[in-house]
Structures are given as C-alpha cells and as structure tokens.
UniProtKB/TrEMBL annotation, chain B:
Native source species: Palleronia caenipelagi
Organism lineage: Bacteria, Pseudomonadati, Pseudomonadota, Alphaproteobacteria, Rhodobacterales
Transmembrane intervals: 16-39, 45-64, 71-90, 96-114, 121-143, 163-185, 220-239, 251-268, 275-294, 300-319
Recorded superkingdom: Bacteria
Membrane topology: Multi-pass membrane protein
One Pfam short name: BPD_transp_2
Primary location recorded for the protein, binned into one broad class: membrane
Cellular component annotations (GO), alphabetically ordered: plasma membrane
GO molecular function: transmembrane transporter activity
Subcellular location: Cell membrane
Keywords, sorted A to Z: Cell inner membrane, Cell membrane, Membrane, Transmembrane, Transmembrane helix, Transport
PANTHER family, A to Z: ABC TRANSPORTER PERMEASE PROTEIN YPHD-RELATED, ABC TRANSPORTER PERMEASE PROTEIN YPHD-RELATED-RELATED
Name recorded for this polypeptide: ABC transporter permease
Listed InterPro entries: ABC_transp_permease (IPR001851)
Amino acid sequence: MSGTKEGAPFALKLRGVSKRFGGVQALNQVDFNVRAGEVHCLAGENGCGKSTLIKIVTGVYTPEPGAEIEVFGEPQTGMTPTQARDMGIAVIWQDLALFPHMTVAENIGFDQMVGGRPRLAALGQIRARAAQLLERLGVTLDLDARLNTLPIAQRQIVAIARALMGEARLIFMDEPTASLTQSETDALLGIVRTLSTEGVAIVFVSHRLAEVLEISSRVTVVRDGRLEGIYPTEGMTQARLGELMTGHTMDHQVIARDKSAAAPVLEIDGLSRHGQFEDISLTIRKGEVVGLTGLIGAGRTELAHALIGRTRPDRGMVKLCGREIRPRNIREAISLGIAYVSEDRLSLGLIQPQSIADNISITVLDRILGGLGLISPAQKKVLVSHWIEDLAVKIGRPEDAVSTLSGGNQQRVVLAKWLATEPRLLILDSPTVGVDVGARAGIFRIVHRLAEAGLAILLISDEVSEVYHNADRMLHMADGRLVETYDPRGTTVEAMEARIYA
Amino acid sequence: MSLIHRINRSLGSEALPLLGALLVVVVGFSLATPLFLTASNFGSMAFQLPVLGLLTLAMMVPILSGGLNLAIIYTANISGLTLATVLIAFGGPEAGIGAFLIGSLAALLVGTLAGLMMGLIVAYVGAHPILVSLAMMIFLRGLGEFLTRGGDISGFPDYMKVIGHGSLAGIPVPLLIFIAAAILWHIMLRRTRHGFSVFMIGSNIDAAEYSGIPTKRTLATLYALSGLICAVAGILMAARFNSVRVGHGEALLLVTVLACFLGGLDPFGGFGRVLPVCLALAILQALSSGLNLIGANQHLATAVWGLFLIAVMAIRWAAGRLNITRFGRT
C-alpha cells in the first residue's frame, strides 16, 4: 500500500456532481477528491457511474448546474477536453485509444505532432523525449516497433508514456489490468507507484479487489450513481469492499467438503508436455471442485489444453471415469464428456456478434436435429429457453447478439453452452475475468449447484481468494509442476498468497 | 408493425427494403417504356438471370465464412470445358443423352475438385482465401486457354437447347434450375450443421473451433460446394451459348460480389441470407434490362449498378442512425 498523502494539496476536488441522461440519473450528488501523489481507487459495479464521473472531470460531459469542480486548486466552470488536457488531466481508457499502425514513438508523441496550425513534427525531439520517459518508467521498448506488434501490457505502457508526454499530473486509469497477466500487472503496479512518488495523482478503476487494496491508499465507492463513501484502504478487506460495492453481504465462507470417498472422474498420472508442464498427477472426484492456482505461466491453461485435445502430452496417462482417454481435438473431448470454459471469453468463449441462441446451441447441434438430419428450430428453441431459464440469464431476446449482454450474463451463456453437452468434467479457466463482484457470486452459486449434482469441476484461477472460497481442495502449480495441495479449512488466503507469490 | 416484425424475423430484415427497391425499379421502368412490363421482357430476364444467380450463390458461401472465391468464373469455364470435351469425344452434335450425363457428372466433379483444393489449402495451410482463389483463378484460366488454345469449342447436340432455352410449364428451365439451387442453398445455410458452422466460422473461427465446430472440414466443404455450383453454372452457360470458351462471363465476377453486398451480406462474414441476395439479383437484372429497353448504353447499366449499391449503403447507414436515435443509446 502506498503511503497516505494527507496534507498534500488536492489535485482534484469535486462536490455535488450530478448528471442526467434523459430519464437516467447517472450520477447523483457525488463528492470525490484526490491528492497530489495519491493513488486513489474508484470502485463500483459496471454501470454505477464511474465512467460518467471520469468523463465529467475530463470535460467530455458537462455536469448539472450546482457542481463544484476544483483542479489543482483552481475552481473550474465548463471545461473542454482540450482544457482538461492542458491542465494535466489524462485518461487511459481500457481500449487505450492508441494508433495500432503507428510506432511506439509516434504514439507517445501524438499529441505533440497534431496542433492548431500546420507545422513539421520535430520527430527527433519527440523520439528523445519518448526514450527519456520510458527510461523514467523503467521499461525498455523499441521506439520503432509498430503498436499492433506489441502485447497489451506494453501498449498500456505506451499509453501511460503518452499521458506523461503531455505533462499529466492527474491520470485516470480505467481497468488497466483487465487483460494483463499477474506478472504484467505487478509491473504496471510498480510503474503506478513510481509515478505516485513523483507526485502524479492516479485514479485507479478496477474490478480486482485485491489489486485495489494493494495499490491505493483511499478508495471511493460509487453505487447506482451515488457516493457510497470514501474509505482508507488500511484495514479494509476484500469482502467488506465487495459488500460496499454491491450493497449485499457476501457469503465468504469456506465451503470445502471432503470428497475422498466419491468415485474418481478424472485421474491424471505423470502427465508431461515439454516446456509446459511436468509430471502432473491429480484426481478429481464426482461432485468435487478442485482449485488450481499459481502464477500466470505456471502451466495451468496448458494443462487444460492437453486435457481437451488442443495439444498432445508427451508422457503420462489421463483416465476419465476409469477409461484411458486421448482426445485428439475438442470435438472428441466434448463427446467424452469434458467441457472447457476458456479464460478468454471475448475471443474464444463466445462468438460475440452471433445470437445468444446460436451461442448456446453451437456445442450440441447433433441433439437438435429433426427430420432429414436438419436442425429443428423447435428443438433449438426448447434447448435455448431451457438453459436461459435454468441459469437465470438476463436477456432481451434469444436472437440478440451475445455481445449485448453484461460480462456476468455472457459467462452464464458460456456455462449454458457447455452444460448442454452434459459433461462429466467441467474445466473453468479463470471464469470471473471481467465479471462484476455481484455477478461473480451468481456464477459460483451455479458452480456449487453443479457440484452438488455430481459434476467434477477443475477451477483454474489466479485469484487465490476465489479458489479458496469455492474449492474443496486447492492445488498450487509453479513452473509446470504441482508443488502442493491445500485444504482450505486448514489454511488462510493470506498464508496461501504468501506461498504462491513468494 | 407486428407484421413487419414477423416478416423481418422469418425473411431477414433486408428482405422488405429490397422488395421495395425492386418495386420502385419495376414501376419506374414500366412508366418509362411500355416494353418493360411485357411477357417477352420478363421471359428474357428469366433466361439471363440464372447464370449470374448461380455464380452469386457460389460467391455467397465463401463470403459468409469470411473469405472470397475469385475463381468462380474459371471454375465454371473449366467445368463447361470438361462437359464439352466429353461431348466432342462422343461425336459432338451426334452425342447421346448418356454422353451428356457422363459429361455433366465429370463437369460437376471437376468443379467440386477445384473448389475442394482451394478449401483444403485455406483450411490446412491457413493462407488467405483471396490469395488462394486468385492463384486458382489464374491457374484455371491458364490451363483452360492452353487446352482450348484460346478458342471456342462448339457443336453440341440439339437437346441441350432445352436446358438453355426451353421452358417447363411456361417457366424457363434455367430459372427452374436457379430456383432449385437457391432453395437448396437456403436449406443448407439455415438448417444444416454445415451451414450453421459457416456462419460461426465467419464471425470467429477460433471461438468456433473451441466450441467443437469442425472448422477445417467446414472450410474444405464450403469451397467444394462453391465449386460444385460453379460447375452447374458452367453447364448452363454451355447450354445457353451452345459453345464453351475460357473467359466467358469474365465480367460477372465482381457483379456477383456486388449482388452479395446489395443482398445484405456482411463483408466481414457471419451474416447474410439467400432470399435478399436473390432480390438483389432481380433488381440488378431489372435495372440492366430496363436501361437496355429505354435505349441506354449497356455500359451505363454497369454505372447504374455501382451507383445503386452506393445508394443502398447510404440508406442503410441512415436507417441505422434512425434506429439508434429512436431507441436511445448512451
């Protein structure tokens, strides 16, 4: 946790900010402030008004009359985005708003290259400054690399450097870690800390509560457009923060049960694949939820890919319900009774532009065939409405594109399409990435119900607390090997995190 | 309102506007010339449309899968050439029905094989469909010109005229062939697992693969089917022109793409239906016939086609804007 910045001057002070869009009250009398050099977290569920607040501060929206806005001690009325930028306010949106076909240097210097009147861009100068900035952030990047050749984490750094190029003193970061791996996240948090010690104020928006508590000194919680409160993160717990954001008490007990007497569903013995995982042996029993955690790159997803036939293991044996299996592709894995919920819901889990109905029926086309082997619209309808009802997916019409749904509801559609295959083993790979705190609980209620019904579940996640609260047993994977098994009843989240991040 | 919704849901939201556009074109030309609304004009349109129509169906499926098939014309030509070769071998004008059947079967096989080869390369090598089909197009053209030495093959038996110029119960045989193909295509796309897979692949091939869709097999199959329907077009062209020449119908290649986009296919794949594409074909044919009847230059028809697509895109854009403002979007 960064030091509190009490006594430091305010970088931004808002009082009584409201905003209406037609009949929707997006923000209602919200107060907010952040001090110079402070890392302040803005927390709240999707649609609570976080983005509206950011857009008001950056001059995109005008607040309703009566709002008081003070930027670096100066009262403001009617800012434009250009004015906000000139005062040193920058936003790094989740989609980064960079230019994929331009180079790193061109992206960093973009705001300096466009101007009111035509002029020659001082490319040499911009390159030198860009190099200097990257050095200050402690990263090495090829200035001439095209942006679309870089991983997301490095693009993020380019976006930060671009903000700093414009002398930003107050930076908003919107879900900066949503698509980063754990180590990339750690690197980003390191950069945030560096900026903070240099006196730059940072407002951090994130769904990941552990991160929020780790990086910021204060957190402002917004719920349904209203200020829930401003809290110091000292002494705050994830559970408490989740409650404040959703307004519900979270059931954060350990649910672990002893399933050692149940029949084994998945038995892995000495499974290895060169460079990915080594000598993996584990058993998952009927009705058991086994958690698999560890750092990104530990080989968790790679192990899952071998189980579903995406890759072939070099050595070892996999048994499903006592029979040895060697699926050659996902189709075979499905017919054997293995379902895999990918960690990448946006590009692998669902076909975003296509309909909810098609996304649910895609895995079970064989089961909705009518006469002449043609797909029966009537059977499809029955299948789709059954799963929408069973998993309580909130949708408009089944023909709507799946992309119109919220993260939590999309994940329910993913579960629906896999449960429709009537699997015996369900592999959940980071099932709550990009899902609201409130909606996560709903997803896990479904998972527990499935386990009760006898499904064997492998839960992969890099959020230790998620595995801790939802698994019967936890496996710790590091460098491609299973290093330890934990019983949640005999340990704590903190103790486990200390081991995993050691 | 609810009727419109019902029609949109069962026929696709593109169908009604295109039907309206067709009506405007037909009424417009009827007022401009008394020759337009006549049986003979409609008859000649019905004979001209099917070749372009079949080739458009061949173009449609690869576009739905997110690809393109630039080789359709030469696949049709080389299939026609196969039929012609068999007929000549059996005596040209004296060749019997059996020879025609064997020749057609061989033509269908050649077309399917050409398509399958492209499909396999697209699926297993991962090369872009534009490159693969461009290569196939150039290969087939070169091969065809080599085999025919750039000339025509003609002199087919008389009974082939029935296919090219005959009518059954007053309906031109070529039109019947096209209607049958369009119905089969509609069923294939909307009711079979293969068709379902084509749409899913068109939107996101990786996610389709992760959902257990046999993406490689689907790609190979869909290009093979595209080649098959090209062969049908090739046989029909041979019957209509009573000759085969490599390069016949060359100008139709981009018109098929135009018809697909006019019919509401998503240029990036994943969305589109057969019926609106058929309506788009009818509009293009009516425009071209109508302009011809009022004595306009044939080149003008091509220009009007292009303008028409631009107008349709502008109208679709405006309608999209209208929907957004009407239903609100923040």
